[in-house]
Each structure stands twice: as structure tokens, then as C-alpha cells.
Design brief:
This protein is of the alpha+beta class. 18% of the residues lie in helices and 34% in strands. The chain is built from six helices and 15 strands. It starts with 7 loop residues before the first helix and ends with a strand.
């Protein structure tokens, strides 16, 4: 069953323009499905979880939730991706439950790095935080969040969408890139990188990179290997300031 208390009042932050509706014929993978008329939809705003060690009872699978259901699509842009899938926020009919919010609340997904709308991002992050606090789904695995003091663990996830936590030891600019360094050895330790072209966006949001020095933060994104493990940060929402440092 879907969790109680998640409905249109909370999901209003992601109530973009309607982009059609239909009946789900089949689930393709962890975040895409096909309508009976052949259209394919990609769940916007989330990434599938990579861990298979989640503790406790698993939530219903995406197929169990969606197959045969009527759903409505909403979004800021209905342009198909390169695979012909329509990215959208999916609302179950008639409950108007936001599917992405439900999956996040059950710990069955992570908030992606692509959510640009602040209100929608806040809704999704709140659902993920609730699951993390309750240790539901993926959050039942202590290794779900990687520690920057263990760069080898992060590097093992090259090509995966990953959530990383740690203390920023230094902030340095080299060429067109600002580095949030979590260690002193750039060939081994983790760093988050911010391209110069998006610095103005961070500053306008009140998140000046230099102010992150000596702060504990949480970073989410795709892990790359450039010397040590790296995550490129293109949106303010990829960085969360944590509690007391």
C-alpha cells in the first residue's frame, strides 16, 4: 500500500503543467514505464537506488504500484529524451498521489541532481529526508551515504548516482573550476567540482563556495574518477548544509 498522508497538498510543489494521461501497460525499469498506447515515460526528479542491502520490509515494487493504473503526467517540458521517453512527474489517479514523492518516502529512490524548481525540489527532498530518518528502503543500509574519509568506497561507485557526506577542508579555484576539497591529496581524496559558468547561480542563492570551507555538507551526483573520486556540481540543490560543524 502507498503511504498515508502524501497527497495533493504536499505534492503541489511539483504541480507543473498537465502533459497528458493514460493507463500503464508495463514497467520497463526502475524509473520508466510504457502506456497502453505505446508512449514511454521517464520518472523525472529521481534516481534509482544502487544499494541492494536495504533492511526491513521492502515497499511495493514500481510494477506493483503502476501496472494497470491510470496516471496523469505533469512537467515543465515534455520534450522526449534521446531514448524517446517523456520525462514527467507522475500523479496516480484518482488520489493525485505524486509517485516520485511516494518512492522517495519509501526509500526506493534518491532525489536527482536535475530538479531546477525550488518548490518541487523542497517537496522531494523532504520525502527523502523522512525516509532517511526512518531508515526505510535504501536508508536501512548504513553504507547508503558515502563518507568522504573513505575515498575508495566512493571510487568503487564510478558511474553511479551517489550521496556523499563530509567536511570541506579547503576551497580552491584552478582555471575554470572551483574545487571543494575533502582531503589533502588531490590524486586520492574526494572533491566536488563547480564549473565557473554556474558560480553566479550559487552566489545568487547565497551559497558562496568559499563559505563552505570547514563546513559539513552532503553532496549528490554522478561519481567520476579524475585523480581521486569527483562529483560535478551544477545545481545548488546538489549541496546540503548539515548541522553543527
Amino acid at each position: 500500500m502507498l503511504a498515508a498522508g502524501i497527497g495533493p497538498a504536499i505534492a503541489a510543489g511539483c504541480a507543473f503543467e498537465p502533459q497528458g494521461e493514460g493507463r500503464v501497460a508495463a514497467v520497463i525499469d526502475a524509473r520508466s514505464f510504457r502506456f497502453e498506447d505505446g508512449r514511454e515515460v521517464l520518472l523525472a526528479g529521481i534516481e534509482p537506488v544502487a544499494s541492494d542491502k536495504a533492511g526491513g520490509k521492502r515497499a511495493p515494487s514500481l510494477a506493483a504500484i503502476l501496472t494497470g493504473r491510470e496516471v496523469g503526467l505533469r512537467g515543465a517540458d515534455d520534450t522526449p529524451d534521446r531514448y524517446g521517453r517523456q520525462p514527467a512527474f507522475v500523479f496516480l489517479v484518482p488520489s493525485e498521489t505524486l509517485l516520485q514523492e511516494e518512492l522517495l518516502a519509501q526509500g526506493e529512490a534518491l532525489v536527482s541532481a536535475t530538479v531546477a524548481d525550488k518548490e518541487c525540489a523542497a517537496v522531494l527532498m523532504a520525502a527523502e529526508a523522512a525516509a532517511r530518518q526512518a531508515k526505510r528502503g535504501v536508508w536501512g543500509d548504513p553504507a547508503a551515504i558515502k563518507n568522504t574519509e573513505s575515498p575508495g568506497d566512493i571510487l568503487a561507485g564510478i558511474g553511479r548516482f551517489t550521496v556523499v557526506e563530509g567536511k570541506v577542508l579547503s576551497v580552491r579555484q584552478a582555471g575554470a573550476t572551483t574545487y571543494l576539497n575533502f582531503g589533502r591529496n588531490w590524486t586520492r581524496d574526494f572533491a566536488a567540482t563547480i564549473p565557473k559558468r554556474v558560480l553566479a547561480v550559487f552566489e545568487a542563492a547565497g551559497m558562496v563556495p568559499k563559505s563552505l570551507e570547514n563546513r559539513r555538507i552532503r553532496v549528490r551526483g554522478w561519481v567520476e574518477a579524475r585523480g581521486g573520486p569527483r562529483i560535478e556540481v551544477l545545481r545548488v540543490g546538489q549541496i546540503e548544509l548539515l548541522g553543527a560543524n
